[in-house]
Amino acid sequence: MESEASSVPAPSASVRVQRSQALDDLIMGTNSSSIVSKRSVERLYYPDEPHYFRYFVKKFQRRAPLINRGYWLRLRAIDVIVHQFLSRSAGQRVIINLGCGSDVLPWQSHVRYGDECRDALFIDIDYPDLMHKKRALVLETPQLKELLGPSFEVSKSDKDLVLLKSEKYCQIGCDLRELEALRQVLDTLVDLSNCPVLFVAEVSVTYMDTESADNLLKWASSVGKAEFCLLEQLLPYGRSHPFAQTMLKHFDKLKTPPRSVGHYPTVGDQCERFKSRGWSSVRIWDLWDAWCCGEFVNAQQRASLDDVEPFDEWEEFILFARHYFVLHASAAENLETIHDATSTQTSKSSSSKELEIQFTTIPGSSKRRFGAPATLQNAEGRSFGLNVMGLGPNARDGSYDVYSLDGGISEDYFVFNPEKGWLQCKTVGDVPKPSFGSIVCNNPVGSSTGKFSGLFCGGIEKTGLVVEEKYEWTLDMASQQPTITFTSARKDFVPELSIFGANVVDLNGNTLVCGGMGADRRVDGQAMYCLTSSESNVEVAIIKQCLGDAAIKPFMIGSSTLYHDGFIIIAGGGSFPHTASITTIPRISLISTSEFESILRRGQPVVIENLQLGECIEKWTAAYIIDRVGSDKKVVVHECQIETGKMDFNAKNFQYVTENFGNIMARAKNGDRLYLRSLSNDKPTEQPAKLEEDFPGLAMDFVLPEQLRYVKEQLFSSVLRVSGKVNMWLHYDVMANVYAQVVGSKRMILFPPSDVPQLAFAPGASSSSVDVFSSLETPKLARTRPHEAIVRPGDVLFLPPLWLHTATPTTDMSVAVNIFFRDLDSGYAAGRDVYGNRDLAAYEKGRQDVAKIAKQFQQLPEETRKFYLARLADELLQSGEGN
C-alpha cells in the first residue's frame, strides 16, 4: 500500500546556493543523450537480461559501434566496483547514486546480484525536477515499480526532498551543492555512520563548480564507512591535444563544460584530490587500463563483444578510454593497490634518445580522407605524392577494390617475390600471437646470402589488447621455402613500440614510426620514433618536437605518411567531426545602378559598403528615435520567453506584447529579449509596412542612394527593425530585399536555396526550427553551404530571393531598415501579402496538384504507390533541371 513519506522540508531561499536555473536545465539535458546511448548498449549487448533503460527512452536509436563500446566499458567499470562493494560484507549496505539521472543501477544490480542485494538500500539523488519525472515513470511502470515491494511511501508535497521511500530503493530530489540539506535528508532514511556506504558518481559532479564538487567529496569521506566510485573525464595529454579539443568543444556547445577536468587533468591529480579530502586509500584506472585489466574485463568478455557487432575503430577507442577514468576510494579501510596511477606517465625509456625534426604546414587544402598513400612518377621523371580513395567525411571517395581474407587474423606469414608472387614462410622460434595493425621494420643492411632481419611489434590481438611483446625476426630466402625466425626482445625494450595503427616510413636506412595509440600512456597519436638498425642492435630515438605543445603537432590517427626527397608528408586522418565550411559574404562598393542589377542577376548575396544612406547613421540614437517617433506610440513586439533568446516561430516560444515605443526602445537598449518588426499603421493585416508612412519622423533621415534606384522603383515594403538580444528564426523571403544596418551590429548566416532539404522546412512552411548558431560547427549541418556576414552601421546586405537566413545580435541593440522589392515581372501569389514572404503562385498551385496526385494513388498497395510516386518525383526534378 502507499502512504505519505516523512516530510523533510527543502531549505529556505535565504540559505539556498545561488544558481542559474538555465544552467541546471542544461546539465539535466545531458542525461537525455547518455541514456539513449546506454539503451543502445542494453539492447545489443545484454539480450538475456531484463531491459530497464527502455522505459526511459521513447525511441530506440542504435549508436555507432565506437559509442556502444565506450558506453559498455563505462557501465562495466561502474558495475564491477558496485558488485565488489556488495559482495565484500554482509548486513545493511547503502549505494548512493549522486546525479543519477535516468540510470537504472538499482534494477540491474538486483537482477545480476540478487543474493548480495538482499540487505542493500539504493538511493538515487538528482535535481528535484528530474527526480519528479523519474518517480512518475517508476510508479507507472510495473517492471520498475516491482522493486518497491508491497509497501512504499510517496511524498505528497513538492517541498519534500524524499520523493519515494521503500525498503530497497529511495529517491531524493536535492541539489548536491546543498550539503546540509543532503545530510539531513539522508539521516531520515538510514544511519550512515553504522553501515558501509558507496557513493557513485558517473560523469555528474564534474558539471558542478569545482569548489562545490570538492566540498561534496570531502563531506562524503566523513560519512561512516564510506567508499566512492567516480567516473569522469581526463586530459592526459593536455587541453591542446586534438582529441581533448574535440571532446571539450562538444561539451562547450552543449553549454555544459566539465569543470573538474580543468583542475584535475591526470590520474595523479585525481588521486591527490581524494587523498587531500579524507580518503585514505585510492585506486584509479584510466578506462584503457580498465579494459586491459582482468579485474574489470577478462579476455573472453573482450572477445565476445566482437560477436555483437563488427568493430574497427581501435585508435579512437583507445583515445576515448585514455580520456576517461574510474576511481575507487575508501575513507575507512585500505584497498588493495593494484594500479600505480603515475607509473606509465613519468617513466622514460632507457633505450631511447631524442632527435629534432621541423614541422611545416603545406599551404592550400585537400580533401580529408582516411586513405592510402603512394608515390608515382610521370614520363618526365617528376614525382607525385598521392593520397587516394578511402573514407571521406561522409562516405567513401572514388572507386575501390574489396579483398576478403577468410578466417580473420591469421598465423601465417608471407613474403612477396617479384617473380613468384606471394610465398608462404615457414615459422620458427617465438612466433608472435596473431594480431593486426602491427609495425614491421627492416634492417637496411641486406645479405648476399639471402638473409634479412628486422623488428616486429605492436598490433591488436584477438581479445582486444595491444600486444606488448616485441620480436626480432630473421628471414632466410636461400632455402626452397622461405623461413622466418622470431626471437623475443627483452621486456623493457622501448615500451612505446607496443603500438597500434602507426604508420611506418623507410627513411634512408632508418625507420620512422608515426602516430598510433599504444599500451603505454605516452603514445598519444602524436608521438614519432626513429628506429636505426644494425646487424647487432636496434636503437630508438623519440622525435624531440613531439614532446611539446600538442596544438602544433600533427595528429596521426588514420593519416597517410610518405617520404620523398628528404621530406616526410603527413596527410589526412584526425579525430575531428566534419562540419560545414562557412563562406564569407564578399564586400563590395557600388558605383552605378547597372552594377546592382548585375548583382541581382547573379543571385549571390553581397555586403555593399560606402553607400550614402542619409543622416540616420549619425543621428539615430535611442533618445533621438524616441523623440522622432513619440514615446507613447503603441507598438506590437515579440518578447522571447526563454533565456537563450533563440526565437522559434514554429514553437511560438515568444509572446506578442503591446507597449509604448519609449519603453520598448529603453528595454532594447539594455539588451532585453525583444524584437520589433514594424507593420502598417493604418491596415496592419492588409498592407505592407512603409517607413515614410509608419514612421515619418525617421523616414527623412533614411535615403536609398542612386545606386539602389532599382530597389526604389520596384519597392514592395520598407520595414523598421529594432531588436535586443534575440536570435531571428531561420526563414526565407520570396522577394529579394536589402537589409540596411543603422545602429549596432548583427551576425547574419545565409544558406542557398538548394540547402532547403537539409534544414527541416516543413512542406509549405517558410520558417524552420533549426538552431543554426548552435549547430554550425556540428555534423548536423555538414551538408549545407552557409554564408556569413557581420553587418555594421552603414552596411547594406543584399539577400537574393529564397536564400534561407537567420541573425544573431553582436551588440545589445540593433536598428535596421529592411527594404523588400519585386525582382520578378510576374508570378507572385494573388491577394494580400503583408510580409513579402508568401510563396509564388506556381508553388501554391503545385501543392494543390500534388495533393490531388497523391490521392489518386491511395487505393494502391504501398510498394506500388511508392514506386510510381518516386518516378513522378524524378520527373519533376528532371524538369527543374531543364531550360
From TrEMBL:
Pathway: tRNA modification; wybutosine-tRNA(Phe) biosynthesis. The keyword Mitochondrion does not apply. InterPro entries: Cupin_8, Gal_Oxase/kelch_b-propeller, JmjC_dom, Kelch-typ_b-propeller, Ppm1/Ppm2/Tcmp, SAM-dependent_MTases_sf. GO terms for molecular function: tRNA methyltransferase activity. Signal peptide: none annotated. Residues 693-838 form the JmjC domain. Probable S-adenosyl-L-methionine-dependent methyltransferase that acts as a component of the wybutosine biosynthesis pathway. Wybutosine is a hyper modified guanosine with a tricyclic base found at the 3'-position adjacent to the anticodon of eukaryotic phenylalanine tRNA. May methylate the carboxyl group of leucine residues to form alpha-leucine ester residues. This is tRNA wybutosine-synthesizing protein 4. It comes from Akanthomyces muscarius.
